[in-house]
Structures are given as structure tokens and as C-alpha cells.
Amino acid sequence: RGPPATATLDRPEPASTSSKRVAVKTTTNDDEAKEAVGSVRFTSKTATADQMAQISELRGRIAGLTAEEKEDMSTWIDKQDDVDLFRYILGFKTTDAAWGKMKETARWRKREAIDNILSEDLSDCFEPGQEEMLYLPLDNRDRPILLYRSALHDPRRLDPVRFTRYVTQQTERAMVQYKLGRERECIVLVDRIGSGLKNQDPALLRELVPVILNHYPYLVGAVYVAPISPVFNVIWGILKTFLDAESQQRFILCKGDYTATLKDFIPNEVLSDTLGGDLNVTSWLLDRQAGYAADQQLAQLEQDLSSAQSGDIAFDGLPATEDEIINIAQIRVSIAGEPRESLESMSDWILSLENGDILRYLRAHGSVDAAWEAIKRSATWRKEERIDGILDEDLSGVMPDGKEEFFFSGLDKRGRPILVYRSALHTPGVIDEQAYKRAVVQRVEEGRKRFGMGKDVAATVIIDRVGSGLKNQDPALLRVLIPCFTQHYPGIIGRLVIAPINNIFFVVWSIASILLDEGTRNSVELLKGDYAKQLLNTIEASNLPKNLGGEKAVPEAG
Hints:
By secondary structure, the protein is an alpha/beta fold. Helix content is 41%, strand content 12%. It contains 19 helices and 15 strands. Helix 5 runs parallel beside helix 6, helix 10 runs antiparallel to helix 11 and helix 15 packs parallel to helix 16.
């Protein structure tokens, strides 16, 4: 069978509405199910009394899941709103079928780590500007547009499983950014200009379509295909095998003057120039690339705030205040709005900042403007000094094996990573100061990767002065090292312990204390007397070096 001969939009499209519970007037048509007062709505559809009962039943089944049943499920299943349950009922009709699909989705999300997919780097799937599937801004009916540029697709280039994961990531991003599935449905626009048999990929359809149908029911309000041709009939014949009759009705095949058809509901500035609009999609993608992650983070922050999860925004165990959360949002807006030309002089680090990172800068600098300027300085420094790739550098020759002056020694009892500096091993002038600084920065970046240091937790730094004397003191190195950390790693030290101290220590302390910011100075603990006992109060013996009274062999670098 060929595709439906639909040249224009011959049916009304629903306008997006809120997913809130609203009072709905009861219908008197005996052929229609009565709508329930206070029922759930999604786009143009309002839950009937029977469907409200189904939602209540699904809610009860979620509450009845045992801990054992939840072991192989994502926590997603506990976060479903009534409108999410309504979509599953719309998609799968009966309560049992909807419940079966919800459990299947929860297991799939756990198995495929979908809850964390937004943090994955899938940028290698396509060359910049050549992305085949992407979300465009809203159409005139408040629906985000998922554009598929089929002429760019080469079935041999990208594995269908990886392609599907990319589309899943884009969809999860749209759910955060556009409240897709809660307040809006999307449309799919298949741009077939220049597409032929060489671009058709049945294997991809077999992988992608079931994921969308089974795990994202009723997210897609309509699929527009333009233009259609005899070649499309081949792929349509395959595609229909995955679709039920209702889903097939959502396909609108545009022929004839497809541009006029599309412009009925897509603004000219959002419609691709290949389809007769003004948007150069490749240029738009390149312009948007730098701020894309920032936009998503800002949307995620907004979602956290609206769902009362703002208590999760914290650094080193200290939750953000309401004012600090507002300030984080202001920084996010600044990142998203930073011109592309300016971002090109900065490290990509600025686009991947965690809320904890921004909170550190805010607390260190006291105001949004000062924190924002400091963040930009750090991003520029990271670009100039190639810090983002520092973990790939071989700096083992700076501090030979067994002679490492800085090393990690597990976690303290509060969960902070312990970074130890063995000052007795240091001889001023032996190691170039800039090379030394780079080696220490590499160690700190390692701590970020291994322990989340700087993202959500600060470090406990121990200055191990056992055996240290005047010959080991290096004021010149301090003047290079300390400003780097106060400027580019503010607040990263939660506790600075110096042990044991003596009169010699105060010579170098008089210099170091001037260079430290107030927050770090306030975190300093100077231990004398039975320093081992004091350290063991907060650090397990297995993580404390032997020469400080613990059980850990030294050296044991990293």
C-alpha cells in the first residue's frame, strides 16, 4: 500500500496547554466518556473519569513496588507526574498495558543509564553543523520542532544504536528545555530535499522507532514529511509496520506546495531554507553550539527550582540559600548569552560548570558581577594554559615516582578527598616553578575527576611537615602557586591542616597567610603537641600516612 495522499493540512492541530489539573465542564453526550472535574490535561486531551481512575490505579501500583522490584528500575518511575501517567494511558489504552510499558521504560532507563544521558559527550556523532536530527524552536502552536535532515544521512556512517542514543539525548534535553511531555508535545519535520534511496536506513528505523513509541508515548503530536516522492513510498512501507492505525494518522505527507503548507504553522525564521523558509540550519547550529550546554543547564536549574529540589544545590555540604540560587541562575543566563566570539577565547569548561562550581565562585567573590568576571578569567586561563587536556599530559618526570610531594590519600570521615603535601621532600630551585605549578594543577584536576573535588565537595589538605626545616621552605614557589589556586580554584580547600608546627613554620606562614583568601585562612588548623591524635579524630588510620600517626604507607601517590 502507498502512503496517504495528503498534500495539505486537512485536520486541526491541537494547541499546547498546561498539564495542570483544571476544572472541566462535564459533557452530556452519551457517546462520549464524561470528563472528571479536576482532571488531568495534556495538549488538547483531557482525562475522562475512567482515565482519572486509571491514573489513580497507576499511582497506587508505583507506590506498591517493593525495594527488590525497584533494584533494576530507574528512579524515574517515582518522579512521574499525573500528566506522564496520562500519556502512557493515551498511548497504551488499558491500565495493565500502560503499567507494563512504564515498568519496561524504568528498566530500560536503568539499563541504558538514560537518567545521566545529558552529561554524555555525543558530539562525535556528527560534524559541527551537520547534525541530522535536532530540535528547533517552537512553531506557532507552541511545539518544539524535531527536524530530520534525511539527505545528510549515510546508513554506513553511524551505528543505529549510537544514532538512537543521540536522538534520545536530544529528546531528554528537549523535555527539560521545553517541558516536552509535561506542557507540550513536539512535531517531527522530515526534510527530504535531496534525499534518495542511498539515504534510506531500515535498520535505523527498526532501532529508533520502538524506543520513541515505547518509552516516550504521545510526545509526538504530528510528523510532517516534505516533499514526498516515489522513493519515500519504499521507506513508508517499512515504517508503517511499526505503527498502529492511530500513529499512522499523525503522519502528514506534504506534496505540491509544501512550503505554503508548512508556513501555515511554522514561522519563516524557524523554517529551514531548504524547505522555503529563512533559517540556514547549519549556520544556526554553529552559532548555537557554544551556548547549547549552558541553555540546557539553565533549564535544568529552573526545573529543579520548580520541583522543590533546590535543596540539592549545595557545595561541600552547605546548601545554597534562596539568594544564592537566584544568583546561580543569573550566572547561567550570562553564560547562555555570552557572544560566540567571546566564548571562542575561553575553555569549554565554562559550558560544563556544575552548580557547585558557580556557588564556589559566588561565595568567594561576594557578588554576581565579581563572580562572573572571575569565572570568565578562569575560563580564559584554562584555554591559554590548556588545562582541559592536562590529565593527558605526562608530567611524571616533574616529581619522580616515590618522590611525589603531592598525593591523594583517600577520604576523611566527612567524605572529603585528602590531599597531602610532604614538605620535607621539597628542595627549592630543583624543579622549575612553572613546571611545579602545572604538576600540582594536574593533581587537582585528577581530584575533580576522581572525587568530584570542586564540583560538590572541597578537599582536606594536609601539610605534612614531619622532617621539614628551613632548607625546604620556598617563598618564591608560594608566590606562584597560591594566586593560581585562589583565583582559579576558589573555595576548593575546605580544611587546611598543618602539622606539626614549630618556630620555623611561622617564617613561611607569615608569607603564605598574606596570599591566601579569607575563606582559606579561616579553614587553617595549626596542630602541635599530639597532632596524630587530633588528625585521627577526623581521618581513619587507614587513610592517614604513617609518619603522621596513621597506617598508610608513604609514599603512596594517588
